[in-house]
Amino acid sequence: MSTINAVSALRNHYRLCLGAVVLTGSAYASYRQFNPSPKITLDAPSRPKTFNGGWFKTLTLHSVEEVNHNVKKFKFELPDKNAVSGLEPCYTPGYVEFLIKRYPNGKSSEYLHSLKPGATISARGPLPTYPWKPNQHSHVVLLAGGAGITPIYQLAQTILENPKDKTKVTLVFGNNNDQDVLLKDKFDEFARDRGDQFKAVYAVSHTSEGSGYYKGYITKELLQKTMPSSHEPGVKVLVCGPPGLEKSITGQSGWFGGSYGGILKELGFSKDQVHRF
Q: Which range is least confidently modeled, 45-54, 84-93, 134-143?
């Protein structure tokens, strides 16, 4: 899984680093590699990889698509049109896409949202945070908040689009309002096509009547109803979201984390059963 974060702005040329999440100004920076509908080529492993852990590469903005009131999808051209990004599971030759949320007073996200097609950025990576092997766990629980859904989506996609991976996936996704529920159409496809393997629960604190979403936050009571027991063999919990959500769920947030605790510890999950992106 890979993420993208802003490092510095050099006039009209932006430098980015793939593979980490940082605090940028007063905003939680969540700029993550996003692969909504991969065009997997049979020769992908033999194609050159743009991001291989080396130095910065220049990307040119091809197009921008508004996803909702504060999220845009950015499609960048790779320097080599025959190359793939090297960020799994994205194997579309010539391009890489990022889903970027704009935060109030967030200098990095506001700058990126101001870019027009033809603008360039420099990027490097990846720094893998949780390499996945098929069937390494029997059941993964994905807990996400806001734009933290993007690496969570990547993992769900990696599992559910691999017929040989039988891992069960439970998603609990928290948001402030209905418009913030990103990628719902993709998760609906998973539920329709892999309903025996995947289920999703949406917690929305300010939801509209009749939305079908659970009204409220991700609480201990909600997780008790939706998650498998901590005693079930092979369960792994993966968490990604803003600091407040991660603190509530794991007792940890930010680079240095802090002591493990929070809701998951109260539910009997050990630190080894939990991973924060």
A: 84-93
**How far apart are the C-alpha atoms of 50 and 88, rounded to whole Å?**
12
Q: Let me know: does 97 contact 76? Beta carbons within 8 Å.
A: yes
Kindly report the pTM of this predicted structure: 0.80
User: How far, CA to CA in Å, does 96 sit from each of 11, 33, 64, 248, 257?
Assistant: 23, 8, 12, 33, 30
Report the candidate in 187, 177, 190 with the shortest Cα–Cα distance to residue 145.
177
Distances (CA, A) of 244 to 106, 130, 217, 233, 262: 17, 22, 11, 29, 11
- Alpha-carbon gap, residue 208 to 264, rounded angstroms: 28
Between CA 265 and CA 271, with CA 268 as vertex, the angle to 5 degrees is 55
The residues that bridge with 73 in the sheet, in sequence order, are: 65, 99
CB under 8 Å to 122, separation ≥6 — which residues? 13, 14, 15, 16, 56, 57, 58, 59
